[in-house]
Amino acid sequence: MGESRLLSRAEALELGPGWRHACHALLCAPCPGRLFGRVPLRHAVLMQMRFDGRLGFPGGFVDPQDGSLEAGLNRELREELGPGAAPLSLAEGDYLGARCEETPQRLVAHFYAKRLSLEQLRALEAGATKAKDHGLEVLGLVRVPLYTLRDGAGGLPTFLSNSFVGCAREQLLQALGALGLVPEAELRRADAASGNGP
Ligand code: GTP
Ligand code: MN
Ligand code: MN
Ligand code: MN
Ligand code: MN
Ligand code: MN
Protein backbone atom coordinates (compact mmCIF):
# COMPACT_ATOMS: atom_id res chain seq x y z
CA MET A 1 0.00 0.00 0.00
CA GLY A 2 1.66 3.24 -1.16
CA GLU A 3 1.45 6.65 0.52
CA SER A 4 -1.93 8.19 -0.06
CA ARG A 5 -2.76 11.88 -0.26
CA LEU A 6 -4.88 13.59 2.39
CA LEU A 7 -8.01 15.40 1.13
CA SER A 8 -10.42 17.67 2.94
CA ARG A 9 -14.04 16.61 3.41
CA ALA A 10 -15.13 19.13 0.75
CA GLU A 11 -12.52 17.98 -1.80
CA ALA A 12 -13.48 14.34 -1.21
CA LEU A 13 -17.20 15.09 -1.72
CA GLU A 14 -16.42 16.73 -5.08
CA LEU A 15 -15.01 13.48 -6.51
CA GLY A 16 -17.20 12.06 -9.27
CA PRO A 17 -19.83 9.31 -9.15
CA GLY A 18 -17.26 6.58 -9.88
CA TRP A 19 -16.05 6.76 -6.27
CA ARG A 20 -17.47 4.85 -3.30
CA HIS A 21 -17.25 6.43 0.13
CA ALA A 22 -16.44 4.72 3.42
CA CYS A 23 -16.14 6.21 6.92
CA HIS A 24 -14.14 4.78 9.82
CA ALA A 25 -13.38 6.15 13.27
CA LEU A 26 -10.74 5.98 15.96
CA LEU A 27 -12.27 6.03 19.45
CA CYS A 28 -9.98 6.69 22.38
CA ALA A 29 -9.93 7.51 26.08
CA PRO A 30 -7.26 8.60 28.54
CA CYS A 31 -5.96 5.56 30.39
CA PRO A 32 -3.97 6.25 33.56
CA GLY A 33 -2.83 2.66 34.27
CA ARG A 34 0.66 1.19 34.05
CA LEU A 35 1.58 -2.18 32.52
CA PHE A 36 3.59 -4.27 35.05
CA GLY A 37 3.18 -1.27 37.36
CA ARG A 38 5.85 0.46 35.30
CA VAL A 39 4.97 1.22 31.65
CA PRO A 40 2.41 4.05 31.21
CA LEU A 41 -0.55 2.94 29.05
CA ARG A 42 -1.32 6.57 28.07
CA HIS A 43 -4.59 6.05 26.19
CA ALA A 44 -6.97 3.27 25.24
CA VAL A 45 -7.35 3.30 21.41
CA LEU A 46 -9.77 0.90 19.73
CA MET A 47 -9.27 -1.07 16.52
CA GLN A 48 -10.87 -4.32 15.40
CA MET A 49 -9.83 -7.67 13.98
CA ARG A 50 -11.81 -8.04 10.78
CA PHE A 51 -13.28 -11.08 9.02
CA ASP A 52 -10.39 -10.91 6.49
CA GLY A 53 -7.73 -11.27 9.19
CA ARG A 54 -6.64 -7.64 8.91
CA LEU A 55 -6.87 -4.88 11.46
CA GLY A 56 -9.05 -1.85 10.78
CA PHE A 57 -11.23 0.73 12.45
CA PRO A 58 -14.95 0.36 13.10
CA GLY A 59 -17.04 1.89 10.30
CA GLY A 60 -17.85 0.99 6.72
CA PHE A 61 -19.37 1.93 3.40
CA VAL A 62 -21.77 4.85 3.24
CA ASP A 63 -24.97 3.73 1.51
CA PRO A 64 -27.14 6.06 -0.63
CA GLN A 65 -29.98 5.73 1.93
CA ASP A 66 -27.74 7.06 4.71
CA GLY A 67 -28.20 10.69 3.65
CA SER A 68 -24.81 11.90 4.93
CA LEU A 69 -21.33 10.59 5.64
CA GLU A 70 -21.87 10.90 9.37
CA ALA A 71 -25.25 9.12 9.27
CA GLY A 72 -23.55 6.24 7.45
CA LEU A 73 -20.70 6.19 9.94
CA ASN A 74 -23.05 6.17 12.94
CA ARG A 75 -25.09 3.32 11.43
CA GLU A 76 -21.92 1.28 10.82
CA LEU A 77 -20.72 1.95 14.38
CA ARG A 78 -24.02 0.57 15.75
CA GLU A 79 -23.77 -2.52 13.49
CA GLU A 80 -20.15 -3.23 14.44
CA LEU A 81 -19.96 -2.03 18.07
CA GLY A 82 -23.52 -2.73 19.19
CA PRO A 83 -26.36 -0.58 20.53
CA GLY A 84 -23.95 0.99 23.05
CA ALA A 85 -22.52 3.01 20.14
CA ALA A 86 -25.80 4.87 19.54
CA PRO A 87 -25.06 7.77 21.93
CA LEU A 88 -21.61 8.39 20.37
CA SER A 89 -23.11 10.23 17.39
CA LEU A 90 -19.96 11.29 15.53
CA ALA A 91 -20.26 14.61 13.69
CA GLU A 92 -18.51 16.72 11.06
CA GLY A 93 -16.40 18.26 13.83
CA ASP A 94 -14.81 14.85 14.46
CA TYR A 95 -13.45 14.71 10.86
CA LEU A 96 -9.67 14.17 10.48
CA GLY A 97 -9.28 13.79 6.69
CA ALA A 98 -9.88 11.60 3.65
CA ARG A 99 -7.62 9.41 1.55
CA CYS A 100 -8.41 7.92 -1.84
CA GLU A 101 -7.40 4.57 -3.21
CA GLU A 102 -7.70 3.56 -6.89
CA THR A 103 -7.30 -0.17 -6.32
CA PRO A 104 -8.94 -2.64 -5.97
CA GLN A 105 -11.76 -0.12 -6.54
CA ARG A 106 -12.11 3.66 -6.41
CA LEU A 107 -12.67 4.32 -2.73
CA VAL A 108 -12.60 7.48 -0.62
CA ALA A 109 -11.78 6.59 2.97
CA HIS A 110 -13.06 9.27 5.36
CA PHE A 111 -11.55 9.20 8.81
CA TYR A 112 -12.87 10.49 12.14
CA ALA A 113 -11.63 10.46 15.73
CA LYS A 114 -13.48 10.98 18.98
CA ARG A 115 -12.28 11.20 22.57
CA LEU A 116 -14.42 9.35 25.13
CA SER A 117 -14.15 8.96 28.88
CA LEU A 118 -12.55 5.69 29.98
CA GLU A 119 -15.94 4.68 31.44
CA GLN A 120 -17.63 5.23 28.05
CA LEU A 121 -14.94 3.25 26.23
CA ARG A 122 -15.12 0.38 28.72
CA ALA A 123 -18.91 0.24 28.33
CA LEU A 124 -18.47 0.01 24.54
CA GLU A 125 -16.00 -2.85 24.93
CA ALA A 126 -18.32 -4.65 27.34
CA GLY A 127 -21.29 -4.40 24.92
CA ALA A 128 -19.42 -5.11 21.69
CA THR A 129 -20.20 -8.84 21.64
CA LYS A 130 -23.90 -7.89 21.33
CA ALA A 131 -23.27 -6.15 18.00
CA LYS A 132 -25.12 -7.47 14.94
CA ASP A 133 -21.81 -8.05 13.12
CA HIS A 134 -19.92 -9.61 16.06
CA GLY A 135 -18.48 -12.96 15.05
CA LEU A 136 -19.21 -12.18 11.39
CA GLU A 137 -17.56 -9.07 9.90
CA VAL A 138 -16.02 -8.19 13.27
CA LEU A 139 -14.01 -10.81 15.17
CA GLY A 140 -13.20 -8.64 18.16
CA LEU A 141 -12.10 -5.25 19.41
CA VAL A 142 -8.46 -4.72 20.31
CA ARG A 143 -6.65 -1.93 22.15
CA VAL A 144 -3.55 -0.58 20.44
CA PRO A 145 -0.40 -0.69 22.61
CA LEU A 146 0.96 2.88 22.54
CA TYR A 147 4.22 2.21 24.42
CA THR A 148 7.50 0.73 23.23
CA LEU A 149 9.06 -1.85 25.55
CA ARG A 150 12.75 -1.89 26.52
CA ASP A 151 13.68 -4.21 23.63
CA GLY A 152 12.66 -1.43 21.20
CA ALA A 153 10.18 -3.72 19.42
CA GLY A 154 7.46 -4.89 21.81
CA GLY A 155 4.36 -2.69 21.94
CA LEU A 156 3.59 -0.19 19.18
CA PRO A 157 6.37 -1.23 16.73
CA THR A 158 5.25 -4.88 16.76
CA PHE A 159 1.58 -3.86 16.56
CA LEU A 160 2.40 -1.80 13.43
CA SER A 161 3.90 -4.89 11.76
CA ASN A 162 0.44 -6.51 11.56
CA SER A 163 -1.60 -6.47 8.35
CA PHE A 164 -3.94 -3.49 8.09
CA VAL A 165 -6.83 -3.01 5.68
CA GLY A 166 -6.60 -0.19 3.11
CA CYS A 167 -4.85 2.83 4.59
CA ALA A 168 -5.82 2.03 8.20
CA ARG A 169 -2.15 1.94 9.26
CA GLU A 170 -1.59 5.47 7.94
CA GLN A 171 -4.83 6.61 9.57
CA LEU A 172 -3.66 5.19 12.90
CA LEU A 173 -0.30 6.99 12.70
CA GLN A 174 -1.99 10.22 11.61
CA ALA A 175 -4.45 10.18 14.51
CA LEU A 176 -1.90 9.19 17.16
CA GLY A 177 0.15 12.23 16.13
CA ALA A 178 -2.70 14.69 15.55
CA LEU A 179 -4.42 13.88 18.85
CA GLY A 180 -1.12 13.92 20.73
CA LEU A 181 -1.60 10.33 21.97
CA VAL A 182 2.05 9.41 21.27
CA PRO A 183 4.94 11.92 20.96
CA GLU A 184 5.91 12.45 17.28
CA ALA A 185 9.54 11.30 17.70
CA GLU A 186 8.42 8.07 19.36
CA LEU A 187 5.82 7.54 16.65
CA ARG A 188 8.42 7.87 13.88
CA ARG A 189 10.74 5.45 15.71
CA ALA A 190 7.94 2.88 16.13
CA ASP A 191 6.97 3.25 12.46
CA ALA A 192 10.55 2.66 11.31
CA ALA A 193 11.16 -0.21 13.78
CA SER A 194 8.05 -2.08 12.64
CA GLY A 195 9.65 -3.06 9.32
CA ASN A 196 6.24 -2.52 7.71
CA GLY A 197 6.39 1.06 6.47
CA PRO A 198 6.01 2.26 2.91
P1 GTP B 1 -19.89 -4.63 4.27
O1 GTP B 1 -21.11 -4.55 5.09
O2 GTP B 1 -19.40 -6.00 4.07
O3 GTP B 1 -19.99 -3.84 3.03
O4 GTP B 1 -18.70 -3.95 5.15
P2 GTP B 1 -18.56 -2.47 5.69
O5 GTP B 1 -19.63 -1.62 5.12
O6 GTP B 1 -18.40 -2.53 7.15
O7 GTP B 1 -17.21 -2.02 4.98
P3 GTP B 1 -15.72 -2.09 5.53
O8 GTP B 1 -15.62 -1.57 6.92
O9 GTP B 1 -15.17 -3.42 5.25
O10 GTP B 1 -14.96 -1.00 4.67
C1 GTP B 1 -15.34 -0.51 3.43
C2 GTP B 1 -14.10 -0.32 2.59
O11 GTP B 1 -13.11 0.38 3.33
C3 GTP B 1 -13.43 -1.60 2.15
O12 GTP B 1 -12.94 -1.35 0.85
C4 GTP B 1 -12.30 -1.81 3.09
O13 GTP B 1 -11.23 -2.39 2.41
C5 GTP B 1 -11.95 -0.41 3.53
N1 GTP B 1 -11.66 -0.34 4.98
C6 GTP B 1 -12.13 -1.11 5.96
N2 GTP B 1 -11.68 -0.72 7.17
C7 GTP B 1 -10.88 0.33 6.94
C8 GTP B 1 -10.11 1.19 7.77
O14 GTP B 1 -10.04 1.07 8.99
N3 GTP B 1 -9.45 2.17 7.15
C9 GTP B 1 -9.49 2.34 5.79
N4 GTP B 1 -8.81 3.34 5.27
N5 GTP B 1 -10.19 1.56 4.99
C10 GTP B 1 -10.87 0.57 5.54
MN1 MN C 1 0.22 -12.44 33.36
MN1 MN D 1 -19.99 -2.91 8.56
MN1 MN E 1 -16.75 -2.20 8.54
MN1 MN F 1 -21.74 -1.92 5.42
MN1 MN G 1 -22.24 -5.33 6.59
TrEMBL record:
Molecular function via GO: 5'-(N(7)-methylguanosine 5'-triphospho)-[mRNA] hydrolase activity; IDP phosphatase activity; phosphodiesterase decapping endonuclease activity; snoRNA binding
GO CC aspect terms: nucleolus; nucleoplasm
InterPro entries for this protein: NUDIX_hydrolase-like_dom_sf, NUDIX_hydrolase_dom, NudT16
Catalyzed chemical reaction(s): dIDP + H2O = dIMP + phosphate + H(+); IDP + H2O = IMP + phosphate + H(+); a 5'-end (N(7)-methyl 5'-triphosphoguanosine)-ribonucleoside in mRNA + H2O = N(7)-methyl-GDP + a 5'-end phospho-ribonucleoside in mRNA + 2 H(+)
UniProt keyword Nucleus, yes or no: yes
Class in the EC hierarchy, top level: hydrolase
Subcellular location(s) of the protein: Nucleus, Nucleolus; Nucleus, Nucleoplasm
Full protein name: U8 snoRNA-decapping enzyme
Species of the source: Mauremys mutica
